[in-house]
Amino acid sequence: MKMVERYIAAVQRELPKNKQDDIGRELKANILDKIEAMEAQQGSVTEAEITELLKEMGHPRSVALQFCPPTPLISAALMPLYLHTLYMVLGVLLVISTIAITSRWLDGAEMNLFWFLKGLASSFLNDAYFAFAAITIGFAVLSRKQKTDSTEAPGTGKWSPEKLPAAGKDWQHISLQNIFGDLATMLFLVMLIWYPIWQPDSGATSIFTLEAHSVLLWFTPVIGIAIVHSLWQLRTRLWNRNMLMLNIGISTAFFLVSLWLVVNTPILRIHTEALHASINVSYLELSIQIFVLVIAFIAAYEVIRDIRRLIRIS
């Protein structure tokens, strides 16, 4: 029986002090009941059989967790709001970092794609670390203040079934990642196109050729509509008929402009004196055209996808 006492003591050490005695007595009674049942079946119980019994019950730490599960850092009731807040803040930080780094990149200090990607990742991650820590600590404090018997999520006290959104397919839900990714991309395009114009004193020049830049200037209203469309998605978070029709129009415009740029004109200004001698200009231009062609194919796919979705809704 000393082995049983050692086992119970090991379990108690993993428990809060105010629960050690009660749980210890309950666990001891449970073990003794099992030993008595074994004795009733086979007459006597050896130390080896008691050892096997305790092994079947599990490690003392695992048993303690069964009796007294640890309090989560963030309560289950607050977890949906925590994740929504985290995604929203990280999305906003991604957009802000994109604008800030693009502005510095276009100023001409480091006109290097690798520098741009490195600066964007560094700026976003530095802000994201702080935001993640601050939001997590804030919700952890709220979880401690929340009533232990409360399972209601914040903001769910007053609701009505009549006001719930219409039932739809899984694809109708719009994720925050997609919304903020589109927002950051559209704002990046706007800055690429217009920065040399609204910041003429910065010395920045357009990275596009004259013909391509002229087309993109006329295309800017479509990008503006796409930005408003993303904000609309952020408000509703569900695809509906009108949103799908607008998205089809935007994707079609992107497909046509991308295809026109690939077919009719060089897209980017390539400064041959800044290139390494081993880099072939024609291959570089071909790579740029292929990249824009991929964008056109993605836009075409979205047009076909949204037309099919529109038919399903109809």
Automatic annotation (TrEMBL):
Transmembrane feature ranges: 81-101, 121-142, 179-195, 215-232, 244-263, 283-304
Record keywords: Membrane, Transmembrane, Transmembrane helix
Name under which the protein is recorded: Uncharacterized protein
Source species: Aliidiomarina iranensis
